[in-house]
Amino acid sequence: MQITEIVNHESITNFAERLSNYYSNEKKGTNKKEKGQYFTPASIAAYMASLADVQSESIKILDPGAGLGILSVALIEKIREKNKRLINVELTLYENDEKIIPYLNEVMNIMKKRLSKYNVGFNYEVRQEDFVASNVKYITPKLNSFNEAEYPKYDIIISNPPYFKINKKEIETYGIEQITAGQPNIYYIFMAIATNMLSNEGQMIFITPRSFCSGLYYSSFRNWLIKRVHFSQVHIFKSRKNVFAKDKVLQENVITKFTKTKPLKIVMSTSEGRDMDEIKKTEVNEDDIIYKSNGHIFFRLPADKEELAIIRKLDKLPMNFYKLGYKISTGKVVAFRNSEYLKKEIGEKDIPLIWMHNIRNMRILWPSEKNGKARAIEKNEKTKKLLIENGNYVVMKRFTTKEQKKRFDVALVTDEDFKKQGYFALDNMLNYIYCPGKKLNRETISGIAEYLSLPIVDRYFRILNGHTQVNANEVYALPFPEAKKLEKIGKNTDKFANEKQERILEQILTN
User: Fold this and answer.
1) Residue 248: its pLDDT value, please?
2) Looking at the chain, which terminus has fewer C-beta neighbours within 10 angstroms, N or C?
3) Which residues lie closer than 8 Å to 440 by C-beta, 6 or more apart?
């Protein structure tokens, strides 16, 4: 096996990146997606390493998904640069890809030689094991009999864990039902285990998808996490296109630093992408990030002072969907399951079927054709449960793009629209808002739609949501004005259209 040699005066971090590129080219992408294996760029590794704050003479480090070890060497290089008292480093690395182990050992041996020049002792152990399977004992109920001598703790844990979905059988095998719902991603289990492997003064630094901050599947995990560690720093990438660009990953990634001790302030930072230049920082309080609503916990990530001001303003509103008594549900028609009942030509007894393309400028344009989609669904005993009774509703798209100007793409359905048919149906790519047991009036649905269309509300939701799906769980958590103010907005739609959003919000917030 030929391995690229390190050149004079080259940082080991940059060498590890060159080696990972060499390995990736040799591997040619085989099984990368299945393994969730995406190597960290040197610029991001160096930034993550810079977040560590260690002044002690001896440190104990864990890298749960080591790869070529770029995060570990970046961390050690940065600590040695900032901490002249450092005399000893102990490093444990987990990597279960046997083909990568020789490369990883080569990087570690170079690190050992480099540190010896500075009289810093370096002991490392590469464990060719499944990190989760080997360490799930840290988060299972057996933790009550935890023996610190048997199960070591670490001063710093740094990781770019794998990303892939795990199934229910694996969750049962691991015994982690208490922090799991649905079919989440493996990366959060790495985070959970790492949390319980930290020493009392420990720090953990991860780069992961942002989904754990708000997704319903991660709700139990968020509750569990904040009882054990505190946010210290969060870094947001404004562009999702180039963080892992060479692997063609379009993922909303964040860098998070958690500590056992609570910091006075949490540092939020942003950059455009992997180059990590022109980083902008903002300080926030813990309750700016940890948002509690309807018995759920969400992690909001305000990127700057403007977004911080937005969440603090809207947090003053007294209501949300639960308090208002409103409900949001998903359209009931799954096209491929009901194809035999879908109609391109509208019969006398057929029911209008609404798709995403029927939403235009806050109205429903029906019938309108796109890509040969059906315009109606047959009304019979089997489809009756898929129909929605005629009335006043707000309909919204469930999916948007990150680049789309509005996260809430909404339209009104009034009791006049489908009066003749008595019903309408929605494709399951749409949500609809209603009040169970009570017919909403037109002013109220207009007020809801106008409120959701305010740019400031859209910004708030993006801070809370962080991805392109409009999930009901997060809509329920969104602050809302009282019902009377929603009606007032709906009655004065034309007036509000001519006013700036700051003025509208001021009227909503004032009594």
Assistant:
1) 47
2) C
3) 326, 391, 392, 393, 434
Residue 382: the pLDDT is 93
Q: Distance (Å, rounded) from C-alpha 454 to C-alpha 458?
A: 6
Identify the domain containing residue 457 by its residue range.
321-509
| Residue 69: predicted pLDDT | 95
Burial 493-502 (b: 16+ CB within 10 A, else e): eeebeeeeee
Query: Cα separation of 505 and 491, whole Å?
Result: 16
Q: What is the pLDDT of residues 309-357, one digit of tens each?
A: 999 999 999 999 999 999 999 999 999 999 999 999 888 889 999 999 9
Residue pLDDT, tens place only, 291-311: 998 888 999 999 999 999 999
Looking at the structure, do residues 33 and 141 belong to the same domain, yes or no? yes
Per the CB < 8 A criterion, the answer to whether 355 and 331 are in contact is no
Q: Are 222 and 211 in contact (CB under 8 A)?
A: no
Two structure tokens written together for 79: 């600590």
Tokens coding 1: 């096996």
Residue where one domain finishes, among candidates 273, 303, 333: 303
Helix axes 70-82, 12-27, angle to 10 degrees: 170
What global pTM score does this model have? Answer: 0.88
Average pLDDT rounded to a whole number, residues 159-172 = 83
Nearest to 480 by CA among 503, 434, 440, 449: 449
Same domain? For 272 and 344 the reply is no
- Distances 238 to 175, 251, 271 between C-alpha atoms, Å: 36, 11, 6
CATH number, residue 275: 3.40.50.150
